[in-house]
Amino acid sequence: MRKFRKLLGSVYYYLFVALVVAFFGLPLLWLILAPFNSRSYLAVEIPANPTLDNFRAVFQNKFAMHALTQSNLILAVGTMLGITLISTLTAYALSRARIPGRNYMTYSLMLFSSVVTGTAAMVPVFLIISRMGLIDSYLGVILVIIGGNLPAAIFIMRDFVDGIPRSYEESAVVSGASPFQVFLDVALPLVRPGMMVIAVWAFVNAWGAFLIPFVLLRSPNKLPASTAIYSFYTEAGTPNIKLVSAYALLYTLPVVVFYLFINWKYGFRFFGGIKR
Amino acid sequence: MEQRRPILSLKTGLVFLLPAFVFVLLFLIVPFVWIIIISFTNQSLTGVTALHPQFVGLGNYLDLFNFSTWMTRGNFGSSLFITMEFVIGSALIGQVLLGLALAVAFYRRKGTLREFVNTLVILAWIIPDVVVAFSWGAFLNRDYGTLNAILNAIGLGRPDWQLQYSLFAIIIFNTWRGTAFSMLLFSSALATIPPSYMETAEVLGATFWQKLRDILLPLLRGNIITDMILITLWTFNTFSPFLLTGGGPSYKTEVISIFTYRVAFKFFQFGEGGAIAVVTMAINFVLVMVYLFILRRQAVYS
Amino acid sequence: MKKQLYILVALLVTASMVLAACGATPTAAPATAAPVTAAPATAVPTVPAEPITLSIICRCVMGGNGESTAKWMLQYVIPKFQEEMTAQGKDVTVELVQFGGSDEELKARYALDLAAGSGNDVMAFDGFWTPEFASGGLIKPLEAIVGPTYLDWEGWAHIPTAVQQLLTYQGKVYGIPVGTDARVIWYRKDVFKQAGLPDNWQPKSWEELLAAARTIKKALPNVVPLQLNAGTAMGEATTLQGWYMAFLGTGNNVYDFQTNKYPVTGQGFLDTLNLYKTIYVDEKLGDARMQLLPDGRLLSFQGFRDGTVAMLVEGDYFWRSVLAKGGDAELTNRDALVGWAKMPAMSPGKGVNNQDFVTASGGTGFILNPNTKYTAEAWALTSFIFSKDSLNFFSTLQAGIRSRDDVPVPNDPVLTTIAKEMLPLTVTRPPDPAYSLDVSPEIQLMTERVVSGEMTPQQAMEAFAKTITTDVGADKVEATK
Question: Looking at this predicted complex, what is its ipTM?
Answer without folding.
Answer: 0.86
